[in-house]
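Quick review question:
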């Protein structure tokens, strides 16, 4: 007894569909989204430094997006030094959450005097950071600019260090971060979450009797970051 052509075609179609569905299980599984490489909790104490929570403004939350998360403290020591630390962890839309401080500092009134790349030694290897030497106008209590004896506007200077932390590596360069993202999307099918860390301190020798000059402020920040980085970066993160 011969099988009718229509019935035969149905059997062939069923076999093709069965083969297609079974092939789904042989496809590589989509990898789980990588976890952040940064620990979004700043400790209360780092050596002899004591940290107090600092404000994240509503304007920042609005500009950087609702999914952006923050950790921010100002640390002080018994000598009177102060170090300001901020971690910003991007949400899904990294185009708004992650940006270079060079973009936002001028909008806050800072003038970037100098920009360089520096390294500091960690147990996991050298950590490369971007160093910004910034100036900011000084104002009196009435909001008027202060002037030096020769009539120039008085400036306060500070040093700011920053770097980006992905799920597995760090970079000090915004463009390099884009290339790392492109590499991971093409080769791994993943998009690692990014955070950026900023650490800032004022140069105080012009205003405080026992203040620190630029070189001393650099040394203070390097020592502080060497203590801070292992506490906020996962052990799996490779510095570069």
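Suggested answer, residue by residue:
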């Amino acid at each position: 007894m011969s099988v009718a052509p229509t019935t035969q075609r149905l059997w062939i179609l069923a076999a093709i569909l069965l083969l297609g569905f079974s092939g789904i299980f042989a496809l590589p599984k989509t990898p789980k989204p990588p976890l952040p490489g940064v620990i979004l909790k700043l400790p209360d104490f780092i050596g002899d430094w004591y940290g107090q929570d600092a404000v994240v403004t509503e304007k920042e939350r609005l500009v950087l997006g609702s999914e952006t998360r923050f950790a921010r403290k100002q640390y002080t020591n018994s000598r009177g030094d102060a170090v300001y630390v901020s971690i910003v962890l991007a949400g899904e839309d990294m185009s708004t959450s992650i940006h270079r401080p060079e973009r936002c500092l001028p909008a806050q009134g800072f003038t970037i005097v100098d920009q360089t790349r520096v390294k500091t030694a960690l147990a996991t290897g050298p950590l490369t950071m971007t160093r910004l030497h910034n100036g900011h106008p000084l104002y009196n209590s009435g909001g008027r600019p202060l002037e030096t004896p020769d009539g120039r506007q008085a400036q306060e200077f500070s040093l700011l260090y920053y770097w980006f932390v992905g799920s597995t590596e760090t970079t000090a360069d915004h463009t390099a971060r884009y290339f790392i993202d492109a590499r991971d999307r093409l080769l791994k099918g993943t998009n690692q979450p990014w955070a950026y860390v900023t650490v800032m301190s004022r140069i105080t020798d012009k205003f405080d009797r026992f203040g620190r000059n630029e070189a001393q402020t650099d040394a203070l920040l390097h020592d502080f970051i060497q203590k801070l980085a292992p506490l906020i970066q996962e052990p799996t993160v490779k510095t570069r």
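Why it works: The chain has one domain: 32-232. Helices lie at 5-24, 58-64, 94-97, 101-104, 174-187, 214-232.
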